[in-house]
Amino acid sequence: MAEWSRAITWAPIWDKNREGVGLEHLLLRDGSADSVVLALDENGRPFRLAYQLAWDQSWRLREARLVVTTEGPVRSLRLETDGKGHWRDGEAHALPELDGCLDLDIWPTPFTNSFPIRRHPLAVGARRELVVAWVAAPELTVRPVRQRYTRLAERRYRFENLDGDGFHAELAVDEDDVVLDYEGLFRRVC
User: Fold this and answer.
1) Cβ-based neighbour number of residue 151 at 10 Å
2) Domain locations along the chain
3) Is 144 exposed, middle or buried (0-12, 13-18, 19+ CB in 10 A)?
4) What DSSP string runs through the chain?
5) Which segments of the chain have a pLDDT < 70?
6) pLDDT in tens, 71-117
């Protein structure tokens, strides 16, 4: 693929009482993303999540930098991976609890769901299970989570969380396999 650059914006739609509150603005380039998410936590308090991601030509994540700003202290998280399932924190300490995770899934953004879709294209009807490093904002906690992707159609996937809560949703993707809409959670604005 030729080098490209895009600006993408998503709006959260999961809280009908706060519809239209929040926004993500992502600058996407070959091998990197730079994004700012304006959101509310579970108690309705605002926070800002800024994240930068870098990956190789095969869409294997290499580095993630996240900063959350709230009315309280600023939180930051830096993760590095070799693309083969071994992770380190920002001080180069190994994170063995994340061994085997190839992808990062950041809440609240639909963008990181694009990594497993792009990296290993599935035939329509095929499915894949994986374990990802799941980061929850605004706390910036990280833990391994089992997930499944099933390709339903040319540009539609079913996402399932396999760690007990039964969550599932359909994801529509664009021609670059970047998430357009995440059923019940996010809608692409532009």
Assistant:
1) 19
2) 5-188
3) middle
4) ----EEEEEEEE-S-GGGTT--EEEEEEETTEEEEEEEEE-TTS-EEEEEEEEEE-TT--EEEEEEEEE-SS--EEEEEEE-SSS-EEETT--B-GGGTT--EEEEET-SGGGHHHHHHS---TT-EEEEEEEEEETTTTEEEEEEEEEEEEETTEEEEEE-SSS--EEEEEE-TTS-EEEETTTEEE--
5) 1-4
6) 989 999 999 999 999 999 999 999 999 999 999 999 999 999 999 99
